[in-house]
Amino acid sequence: MDSTLYLALWLVALLVAIGILSWLLARHQGRHDLRRLQAQRLLEALQRYSDWVCAQRLAAVFQGEPPEAAEALDAACTIRMAWFPELAGDMAQLMGVHNRIIQFLGTQQALWLRDPEHWLESDHDKRFMALWRQHRIALQALLARLEEASSVTIRPAAARRESTYA
User: Fold this and answer.
1) In degrees to the nearest 10, what's the CA dihedral of 15, 18, 24, 28?
2) What's CA 13's distance to the chain center, in Å?
3) Residue numbers in the chain where pLDDT is lower than 50
4) What is the DSSP secondary structure assignment for residue 164, as one 8-state letter?
5) For helices 124-150 and 3-55, what crossing angle results, to 10°?
6) CB–CB of 45/84 below 8 Å?
7) In terms of pTM, does the model score above 0.70?
């Protein structure tokens, strides 16, 4: 084999290898960028949901979970399942607290309608704040794991918003 042909074949093989490596790196970077975008969407959905939970403390009447809160929580769960399976345990914790909050608010609303005086004695605010703290702890754990999993820095404003009620 002629040395020129031999070197040309090596050059072609090297160029093909470089092309494949470039394609793999570009694909990896694109997936990483898409995952960061999904992390931002997840963060926004969690913030919308957390804002609704926070507003329940001052709500005069609980009328069930509004579509906006349900949609935000559904979006968060959908994004988590599709892009962040490693956050399943943390999301389950948040969902558990969510279910307790919904049950508590529904029970308190029924009590308020049946016996307002007994409702006043039920220490509604103190019990809600205990659930709020559980919500905040579960949310902070989820946000910390999201930050680790996606390399998305949680903005101080987002962290401050979730801890409105300490």
Assistant:
1) -140
2) 45
3) 157-166
4) S
5) 170
6) no
7) yes
